[in-house]
Amino acid sequence: MRKFGKILKTAALTATLVMAGSVVALAGGGGTPPADEAVRIAAWNDYWQAHIDAGVFNVAVVLNGETLRFSVPAFLNGDGRTMVPRAEFFEAVGVAPNSAAVTVIDGVEFVQLRAAAEAAGLSVNFSQRQREAAGSQLSMMTVYVGTMPAYATFTDQLGVEHHVRQNPTRIAVYDAGFLDVLMYIGFGNLGIEKVGVTFDPASPPDWWTYGGDIELIQAGTLFIVDWDALDILQPDLVITQARTFQMNPSGDRHGQPGAGLYHQATYMRYPAPFARLAWSTPSNLVGNLIINAEALVAMFPGHQVEILTAAMNMINEIDAIAAQTGEYRALFVDMTGPNNFTPQFENGRFDQIYCAFGFAAAAPPNSLAGVENNIYARDAWLGEVNPEVIFLFNRGGQTGNPESLARFLSLPGVQSTDAYQNGNIIYNLPNVEWYTNVNGFTSIKRMIYDVNRFLDGR
């Protein structure tokens, strides 16, 4: 549970956003909230809209390469000048406060940044950029005081160009695949000190195998960005993916008004770059692997050799597999429940079997037209398609359930396939590696292992 109180805004728009007495929990589920939560949801939406209407102009102040963390935010005044808390700024630069002109807002003394910095003998440089979010252009300002840090530029999956400081030490990651990549290379090796993650650090998921010294902060879920956590973490970079902002803390799903407001307000609240990396349909496994590797190299140029070596080794393994699989007609089957399964075709979410790993597709995407959505109709269809290899995906643990798996294997259509008769049903494809963490280096290694289970057993 969390409670939002008074938040200081710009002097030009002096806005105080209050959720008096409103206590809001991070919703774990979605759908239409019950009627008794209507007031709570309205309070959230009013809060986000007020945050947006205040016209907050994000200002980040970087002193000798380190972003300053003020207890109240820097802002632009009515004349377009950057204002910072006087006492905190001079404490950060290590000199006694000078007699620069002071503006007092709610009891806090602010001074003009350029005047204060130059009085302390420090240079000042400004970098203004625009960032599109929820259909609006949001202005962002970074002010470099003293030594300017090295910055990298890369373009994300959506075609947005990002300017990211090299060797960031605090990162929030809402993309499990990219978190997997960082884990594979090693957080400590990259110099990362704090990471915002989408799980409880006290009980991490089974795939989390990193044992180094790293501070983890639960920063929300794959769908929800937790403002309280980002306020603590103050990340240099936020990595997102297609699921991010698909839900908001009041339970609205993507496409509902509150979800868009929350997305836009989040971008306005934090000056750190929000970069969406590899996530796509079709899967584009190799292409996304390259996107992740190139982004990492841009962020951590001192680790170029090890990052590119790891990526190229995986690409070479994938290519070696694809050179052997083209003559086999395969089908990727997603067992969505004990009484149903869904074939996955080319140009879809799981087409890495056909695209990256080179199997011939046993059936075209439109071949299910007219087939009823039940296990018996699809079983008959499967017998007609007759794949030589079936990759059976373990969504939600279904194929890990002995009874569910036994039922699938007992179906007449399944038993009539060449895949069944030749022992080429590769089951128990793990949910995490093939779905949640797809495009992660560790996940790709597991995919390679699973496809090799077929090649080794021929």
Question: Could you explain how this protein is built, in words?
Answer:
By secondary structure, the protein is α/β, with parallel strands linked by helices. Among the domains are: about 1-55, no CATH class; about 320-455, Rossmann fold (3-Layer(aba) Sandwich). The chain is built from 15 helices and 22 strands. The chain has helices at about 40-55, 85-95, 115-120, 175-185, 185-190, 225-235, 255-270, 285-300, 305-325, 375-385, 400-410, 410-415, 420, 430-435, 440-455, and strands spanning about 1-5, 25, 60-65, 65, 75, 80-85, 100-105, 110, 125-135, 135-145, 150-155, 160-165, 170-175, 195, 215-220, 235-240, 275, 330-335, 340-345, 360, 390-395, 425-430. It has a 5-stranded parallel beta sheet with strand order 15-14-13-16-17, sandwiched between helices. Strands 18, 19, 20, 21 and 22 form a 5-stranded mixed beta sheet that branches. The model is unreliable at about 1-35 and about 130-135 (pLDDT under 50).
Total beta-strand segments: 22
CATH topology of one domain: Rossmann fold
By oligomeric state, this entry counts as single chain
What's the shape? elongated
CATH homologous superfamily classification of one domain: Nitrogenase molybdenum iron protein domain
Assign a percent range to the helix content. Answer: 25-40%
Highest-level CATH class of one domain: Alpha Beta
Low-confidence stretches: 1-34, 131-136
How many helix segments?
15
Terminal Cα span: 55 Å
CATH architecture of one domain: 3-Layer(aba) Sandwich
Specify the biggest β-sheet: 5 strands, parallel
Radius of gyration: 26 Å
Main-sheet strand order equals 15-14-13-16-17
Structural class, please?
Answer: alpha/beta
Mean pLDDT value: 83
In terms of DSSP E residues, the strand content is 15-25%
